[in-house]
Amino acid sequence: MMPEPLHTYFHSRTKLADQALNQLMDTTNSNPEIIHEAMRYSVFAGGKRLRPVLVMAGAEICGAAPERVLPTAAAMELIHTYSLVHDDLPAMDDDDLRRGRPTNHKVYGEAIAVLAGDALLTKAFELIGRNAKIRGVRPQVIPQVITLIAHGAGTFGMIGGQVMDIKMEGGQWRPKKGAPKDAHHQVEQKLRAIHKHKTAALIRVSLQAGATLANATSQQIERLGDYGEKIGLAFQIADDVLDVVADKKKLGKSGSDARNKKLTYVALYGLDESRKRALALVEEAKEALKPFGKKAQVLKQLANYIVERDH
User: Fold this and answer.
1) Any idea what the CATH number is for the domain that residue 122 is in?
2) Could you please report the per-residue DSSP string of 120-166?
3) Considering its fold, how many domains does the chain have in total?
4) What is the span of the domain harbouring residue 107?
5) What angle do CA 203, 285, 124 make, to 5 degrees?
6) How far is 273 from 25, CA to CA, in rounded Å?
7) Can you tell me the distance from the alpha carbon of 159 to that of 90, in angstroms, rounded to the nearest whole number?
8) Chain center to CA of 138
9) What is the pLDDT of residues 20-67, one digit of tens each?
């Protein structure tokens, strides 16, 4: 369960994110209707809205109102959603369920699912551009935000991590007989690299984008980036654990990691060690927030919640 202050904060910011997404994706009767329907199907499938909330939190901890960053917050959810739509495709993880509902390609077919993901990614950068018109935002910071997010979502971030992840499927990561003594250490490095890019990169840039739109100092942006990377890794470890132990109905997906023989924290370290590593990362994340003092309370609670959640 979320502690009450975090629950209240998360609920109010999630509501803001949903309102922004609904308004900015108001495509009623827009042609071709099927692509807009497919985009909304996955965006409004009940996600946690973690990344948009982090954009708002990054802005607020640096002194800006959450409303200042709503288009960019919505954009981060679109980027995250597009990655899930593509992840679920038969060519990738081949999943039938996402958040308890049939995956996009199961409803609309593979071709429309691919295009829906493409459209969500493209729409995201339109929304970031729109953030220049929000009162209090200096238009000259928008190119910084676009560069930051594109880097975090691209081959040096999320997509790069997904490629590494695919290359490690089918148990190919397991050291072969007669492998060098440092083979296990190399696998550990690969595992961290995968999730630093695949999961942590977008979480990191969500906070940094919000801070940049709030005219934060370079030190504040760096500290929030450190915090984001640590909670991003902890979030992935928690996901790896949940993929094994969680109630699949509550989790809303079937759990394909073991089926695909993926390189995960649980596969490499086991459940207990994975949980310990997640907790250690949470403590490191909270340490990065020290310069923010009491303003960081919600982000500290969020770090704890990430490893305590059950779905």
Assistant:
1) 1.10.600.10
2) HHHHHHHHHHHGGGSTT--GGGHHHHHHHHHHHHSTTTHHHHHHHHH
3) 1
4) 4-308
5) 10
6) 42
7) 17
8) 26
9) 999 999 776 789 999 999 999 999 998 899 999 999 999 999 999 999
